[in-house]
Design a protein that fits this description.
Distance between the termini: 23 Å
Strand order of the largest sheet: 1-5-6-7-4-8
Shape: flat
Mean pLDDT: 91
Order of helices and strands: EEEEHEEEEHHHEEEEHEEEEHHH
Length: about 375
């Protein structure tokens, strides 16, 4: 009898934001997990390929897998997680520094740098240093443009926020909370607060905005799609539901805004099979992927705008939206330059690494994971 293939979903554990690189790597897996392999090594030594290959092999064996994509190179992986086994492989190199919290008992460092030709790399030292300097500069410029974009976005938000009837918005949020959590619905048998897992579902990458929102729709029966201009209350609605879910004892997955990571763009309540997503660009979703969906609710918060109050500022809003797009485009341009230089940097390491040894390491890790799966 053939083994049914596992389910794959992709997320971003870190993001390029107005606050620089913003990490949720501590949310990939709990410190008390079954096993965490922390993969160390320079660029181009095969960390992503090792993790992706193991992930695909586990998928074929019927295990569910999370691919944790790199926001600076979405074709690469920063981690792989097997939720049923509570086992993870995580890239532990800069900027997503991951240090073992329970070494030996849970965490294990796998250092792929053990398999490179150090003499060969030392000959490339001046070129490696030069490339790293350029990469750091490109990221600094990219993040400065994202900071600029946030300032402009905050100003755009202010026009809409000042024109909102938040009394009606709060009433609508209360209605939604009551729909999701009727008075008699609670899961309070746990001895601790329900867990909240934080990630990005949309990322700013060298390829532009990439959204994995479709991943949230697997096994979701009720979906709330939030429409509305900036500042109309989408993040506030998500935050209110998230707080109430935790109070009621339901674990949640919280997905943050790639521009302002302090704000929420989406959330999932797995036990209730309910999701709330920001349905405005750059967030994209495809309802064709939601085969289990039985209840779709579109909430347009623009319904609570006073357009007469907005009228005097239409010119300023249009100009700021154009400036915002330009700042984002410039940020992406420099992320692309950083990616190109990073690819160049990788070439020095690729030429100095023993990939046969890396493949042996990969096979041993897979064997270890399969052994752990039996226990």
């Amino acid at each position: 009898m053939a083994v049914m293939k596992g389910r794959l979903r992709s997320l971003f554990p870190g993001g390029n934001t107005s606050q620089g690189f913003y990490s949720f790597y501590d949310n990939i897996v709990e410190p008390g997990a079954n096993k965490i392999f922390v993969i160390k090594g320079g660029p181009g030594v095969g960390k992503s390929t090792l993790m992706r290959t193991i992930g695909n092999e586990m998928l074929e064996k019927g295990y569910d897998v999370e691919f944790l994509r790199c926001s600076s190179d979405p074709a690469s992986l920063d981690g792989v997680y097997f939720p049923e086994l509570d086992i993870a492989l995580i890239d532990g190199t800069f900027p997503h520094i991951v240090d073992p919290k329970n070494p030996g008992a849970v965490d294990e460092i796998v250092h792929l740098g053990d398999y490179w030709n150090e003499d060969k790399l030392r000959k490339s030292k001046p070129y490696v240093l030069a490339d790293n300097k350029k990469i750091a500069k490109y990221y600094k410029i990219a993040y400065s443009y994202l900071q600029e974009a946030k300032v402009i976005h905050d100003r755009i938000e202010s026009y809409y926020t000042d024109s909102m009837n938040f009394g009606l918005v709060n009433k609508k949020i209360d209605e939604i909370c009551q729909e999701i959590f009727p008075n008699n619905l609670a899961n309070l048998e746990r001895n601790e607060l329900a867990k909240q897992r934080h990630m990005f579902i949309t990322a700013i990458t060298p390829e532009g905005f990439i959204s994995e929102t479709a991943n949230l729709l697997n096994n979701v029966e009720t979906l709330y799609v939030l429409k509305g201009e900036p500042g109309t209350g989408k993040s506030t609605l998500c935050s209110r539901v998230a707080v109430l879910a935790q109070q009621k004892g339901f674990a949640t997955e919280l997905y943050h805004c790639p521009i302002d990571p302090e704000k929420l763009d989406a959330l999932l309540i797995p036990e209730l099979k309910i999701a709330i997503i920001n349905g405005t660009p750059p967030h994209s979703y495809n309802l064709k992927t939601a085969s289990t969906l039985t209840n779709l609710k579109v909430i347009n918060l623009n319904d609570y705008l006073d357009y007469n109050n907005l009228e005097p500022f239409q010119k300023e809003i249009a100009e700021d939206k154009e400036k915002f797009d330009l700042a984002i485009d410039k940020a992406i341009e420099f992320l692309k330059k950083a990616k190109k230089m990073h690819d160049h940097l990788e070439s020095y390491y690729i030429s100095a690494i023993d990939f046969d040894k890396i493949n042996e390491v990969r096979k041993k890790i897979l064997e270890r994971i399969l052994e752990l799966s039996k226990s």
